[in-house]
Design brief:
214 residues, Rossmann fold, globular, alpha/beta, five-stranded parallel β-sheet
């Protein structure tokens, strides 16, 4: 495959979804074929799974069930959207991917990383991102942002501060383990400042020829 696969990861409220949209818009404006997508979701089947996963009425869901549902949605997403786009040499910008499962269900829920990695190999068919961008903010900052938009609060948001601290720690550990494919971007500043940081990262770490602003 000759496409470029850029994934945005991060704790709740980091601003990764906003930054994914901004990057996709910038790339499109420079003439690239871009697919902007998200997880869980991205396909009709996976969006139905997303509804189950994020519904606050499902707080009794077991961690194992949660991990398998995320992975099932991911398998459909890869097969229907991501892999076909990469095969036609498009740029795929994805809001979350397999590392979210390692951070949330591994770091946050305490499931075996080894088991989760095995499930992800099945779900993705071995597909890995070209670049992983971790938009990072302190847990308290992220949750304050999330709870500021009451209508958008979901089942994971209400999992507790300690859970979210474990998730963030897992993300930072994953990034430290593989600096060749991860970049950590400070998400504390204004949206446009964070956007320019990310554009510089993408310009430096890919061959997309993305123009940066001084």
């Amino acid at each position: 495959m000759s496409g470029v696969f850029i994934v945005f990861e991060g704790p709740e409220g980091a601003g990764k979804s906003t930054q994914a949209r901004l990057l996709a818009t910038r790339l499109k404006s420079e003439g690239h074929d871009v697919v902007l997508t998200r997880e869980p979701g991205g396909t009709p089947i996976a969006e139905k799974v997303r509804t189950i996963l994020l519904d606050q009425s499902n707080c009794a869901m077991l961690p194992e069930t949660e991990a398998l549902l995320y992975s099932a949605a991911r398998a459909q997403h890869v097969g229907d959207v991501i892999r076909p786009a990469l095969e036609r040499a498009a740029v795929v910008v994805c809001d979350r991917f397999a590392d979210s499962t390692l951070a949330y269900q591994g770091g946050g829920r305490g499931l075996s990383m080894e088991d989760l990695r095995a499930v992800q190999r099945l779900a993705t068919g071995g597909l890995t991102p070209t670049l992983r961008i971790l938009v990072d903010v302190p847990v308290e900052v992220g949750l304050r942002r999330r709870f500021g938009a009451v209508d958008e609060v979901n089942r994971l948001d209400v999992a507790g501060v300690d859970f979210h601290r474990r998730v963030r720690a897992a993300y930072l550990a994953l990034a430290a383990e593989d600096e060749s494919s991860w970049v950590v971007v400070d998400g504390n500043d204004e949206v446009d400042v964070v956007e320019e940081r990310i554009v510089h990262v993408v310009a430096r770490r890919t061959d997309l020829g993305l123009a940066t602003r001084a």
